[in-house]
Amino acid sequence: MGSLSIFIISIFLFISISCYEEERSIYLVLLDGDAVAFHPNSEASKVHAKHLLASHDLLLQSTLERGSYNKLHSYKHLINGFSVHTTPSQAVRLRRSRGVKLVEKDRGAKKMTTYTPEFLRLPKGIWAQEGGDKNAGDGVVIGFVDSGINPLHPSFAYDPIHPFKTNLSHFVGACETGPLFPATSCNGKIVSARYFSAGAEAAATLNASLDFLSPFDADGHGSHVASVAAGNAGVPVVVNGFFYGRASGMAPRARIAVYKAIYPSVGTLADVIAAIDHAVLDGVDVLALSVGPNEPVKDTLTFLSMFDIALLFARRAGVFVVQAAGNKGPGSSSVVSFSPWSIGVAACNTDRKYPSSLFLGNGRILNGVGLSGPTFGSGSVLHKLVLAKDAVKINGTSPWTPEYVEECQHPEALDPNIVLESIIICNFSGGFYNGTSTVAAIINTSKALRLEGVILVANPSYGDFVAEPVPFAVSGILIPNVDDAKVILQYYEEQTKRDKRGTATEFGAVAAVGEGRVASFKGRSPVVSRFSSRGPDIIDINKTLADVLKPDILAPGHQIWAAWSPISALEPTLKGYDFALLSGTSMATPHVAGIAALIKQYNPLWTPSMIASAISTTSSKYDNFGENIMAEGFEIKGLLPSTPFEYGAGLVNPNCAIDPGLVLPSEYVDFISFLCSLPNMDTDAIMAATGESCNHPFSFPFSLNLPSVTTSALRGSVSVQRTVMNVGNNTETYLASALPPNGTKVDLYPTWFTISPQGTQNLEIQLSVIQPMKSFSFGEIVLTGNLNHIVRITLSVLAVSV
């Protein structure tokens, strides 16, 4: 009996201890002391790197309990720190340790997810000036922190007949090998490839069949992004045997450096920061980040997170950093690109659409979406229409609920005798909204039952849905509008006979699916995409407003054709395909990365801030109708007027950006002054994050020399300065004028000036409130040169009080 009691007590204690055992998380730790200078091959740098590595290990061993942690990465090049997998109580011990400046919980990292060279007028513009697409971007290396790359894709092939003209003496990379990524993958076009997985392996149990521990891209996202920025020119896009045209990257001769940090199962900031650390060490010119944190940091300022500080130090090292603004639109202050030292990119459409049509037997023609060929005979031959609910097996033992039946997810639930060679009507219902139903399953159902075609219609109970063109391997069409769906269903019921129980006995409705793969180049563009995250920028998780314009710039990110990985680990609809048509700020970001590479090739001595300024001040705020850019909102139908908080400075204009006339430079010391001028700023926090003292703060945060002026609380009158530099080859005279935001008055001094090549000029801008406003209003300063240069500086002002 006593033994039994002891056993029960032991079990109780074990359960109690197990219930209260702390769950481990990943923490990012920033330490005192400098990182390695950017001379990776010097003996001094190697010695210092070994010293930092040893100091990280010693700190962990002396501070944390043995067996309570696992170090993931040591950060030695951009920042001095490490990432560790441990418990919250051990993280507290780290925070209290001498020499530890910041301990931040990993927030995880996510992806932000052809025709565009023509849309942006590159072939006859900057490409022509740089020797055509066979030379555009040569000598520039773009680094991609993403899900890896598909090295066998023709967008990344090396052509020995057209060797690269410029060597890469400034770049030192490495080719890490592994599953599906042999050493030959680094072929001259792909000049470096690394993978970072310690964070992923700590955060989740990886799937060996998908989460390859190599730079290979099992997802497709990284390949897509890389080919948009730097994919080879003129690569044929063929999907399901149909030729959609030829794809080219923005800078088709730029070299690609791959830093895989996102896996199909998981992504962590620990791996992303390690990837950024190595990319800058290797010597990339441009860093494209279509991945990143999906929310602001909780316990520090957005600008002082480990991620943003890593980007600051990348900028200090001379790297142009491009970051996705995020896909949390259209809500306000939804951007996840916060800092003035990285370029946050919003997404828009182009004027290319893929329309499709549905022909009904009563003569009605309805518009829809679907990248598929027509049903046999197209509109001239009509086929029987069957509603999925009317094709359920009557005597079967189907386990599927009616919702899944009407969504055509399971061919076993439908009677093949009823649906054979018919067009089936599927409903966009609960399964699609909760994420359990997919278009891929509909396609599989169609193949299994040998259907003539499929129609996915909106459900009146759920309203309209957003339809993106999906490559159907069968004839298919999406009808996202409820009113159109009602037309189809009304016609269907009129032509269908039912018995007393409501069971369909005769199907008289007929239809045909039209061609959906031929592009139409009509309509308004650019239009800011619904999903694209909006400003105003924020300082902290409480959404305190920041005096920084975000997003910075607008670029095509809606329905973009680019390279893909046939494994397509997370997109079953795209499995087996070499190309994908995707939307997201992930797709907009590499457009700007590639354009930055073109500018860098044309102006090799320009700093990142000069490139950023040129991109912003030469952009356009007008669409192809000559009207102000519009935006998609919460409502699916209709467009809304947009502001710089939707499109930043405007749509990127690469052909003007290579010759902007004037630029507004700002460098590392200016960013420190900016941080020190933030309201209620803890100067110790800045010292901890950057190692810099606040000796020269600005009077206001908006004093930072950005190519825009944003103030979130203008009271009375304030004077702010902008400094411009002439990057042209000739002396030029500029006339300064202002379009003031509502409720304000803008005075400029001087109103005109003459500036010589490489000369600088200070421009005093006095902003005065003449009427308080309830929300931000917008204007711009325009500097018009006598040699046809036009420089635009966006104004975003919340006028609080006179």
Automatic annotation (TrEMBL):
<dbReference type="InterPro" id="IPR000209">
    <property type="entry name" value="Peptidase_S8/S53_dom"/>
</dbReference>
<keyword id="KW-0645">Protease</keyword>
<dbReference type="InterPro" id="IPR045051">
    <property type="entry name" value="SBT"/>
</dbReference>
<dbReference type="InterPro" id="IPR023828">
    <property type="entry name" value="Peptidase_S8_Ser-AS"/>
</dbReference>
<feature type="active site" description="Charge relay system">
    <location>
        <position position="586"/>
    </location>
</feature>
<feature type="active site" description="Charge relay system">
    <location>
        <position position="221"/>
    </location>
</feature>
<feature type="active site" description="Charge relay system">
    <location>
        <position position="146"/>
    </location>
</feature>
<dbReference type="InterPro" id="IPR015500">
    <property type="entry name" value="Peptidase_S8_subtilisin-rel"/>
</dbReference>
<dbReference type="InterPro" id="IPR041469">
    <property type="entry name" value="Subtilisin-like_FN3"/>
</dbReference>
<keyword id="KW-0325">Glycoprotein</keyword>
<feature type="signal peptide">
    <location>
        <begin position="1"/>
        <end position="19"/>
    </location>
</feature>
<feature type="domain" description="Peptidase S8/S53">
    <location>
        <begin position="137"/>
        <end position="622"/>
    </location>
</feature>
<comment type="similarity">
    <text>Belongs to the peptidase S8 family.</text>
</comment>
<dbReference type="InterPro" id="IPR034197">
    <property type="entry name" value="Peptidases_S8_3"/>
</dbReference>
<dbReference type="GO" id="GO:0006508">
    <property type="term" value="P:proteolysis"/>
</dbReference>
<feature type="domain" description="Subtilisin-like protease fibronectin type-III">
    <location>
        <begin position="704"/>
        <end position="797"/>
    </location>
</feature>
<keyword id="KW-0720">Serine protease</keyword>
<dbReference type="Pfam" id="PF00082">
    <property type="entry name" value="Peptidase_S8"/>
</dbReference>
<dbReference type="Pfam" id="PF17766">
    <property type="entry name" value="fn3_6"/>
</dbReference>
<dbReference type="InterPro" id="IPR037045">
    <property type="entry name" value="S8pro/Inhibitor_I9_sf"/>
</dbReference>
<keyword id="KW-0732">Signal</keyword>
<dbReference type="InterPro" id="IPR036852">
    <property type="entry name" value="Peptidase_S8/S53_dom_sf"/>
</dbReference>
<dbReference type="Pfam" id="PF05922">
    <property type="entry name" value="Inhibitor_I9"/>
</dbReference>
<keyword id="KW-0964">Secreted</keyword>
<dbReference type="GO" id="GO:0005576">
    <property type="term" value="C:extracellular region"/>
</dbReference>
<keyword id="KW-0378">Hydrolase</keyword>
<dbReference type="InterPro" id="IPR010259">
    <property type="entry name" value="S8pro/Inhibitor_I9"/>
</dbReference>
<protein>
    <recommendedName>
        <fullName>Subtilisin-like protease SBT2.4</fullName>
    </recommendedName>
</protein>
<dbReference type="InterPro" id="IPR022398">
    <property type="entry name" value="Peptidase_S8_His-AS"/>
</dbReference>
<dbReference type="GO" id="GO:0004252">
    <property type="term" value="F:serine-type endopeptidase activity"/>
</dbReference>
<dbReference type="InterPro" id="IPR023827">
    <property type="entry name" value="Peptidase_S8_Asp-AS"/>
</dbReference>
<feature type="domain" description="Inhibitor I9">
    <location>
        <begin position="36"/>
        <end position="107"/>
    </location>
</feature>
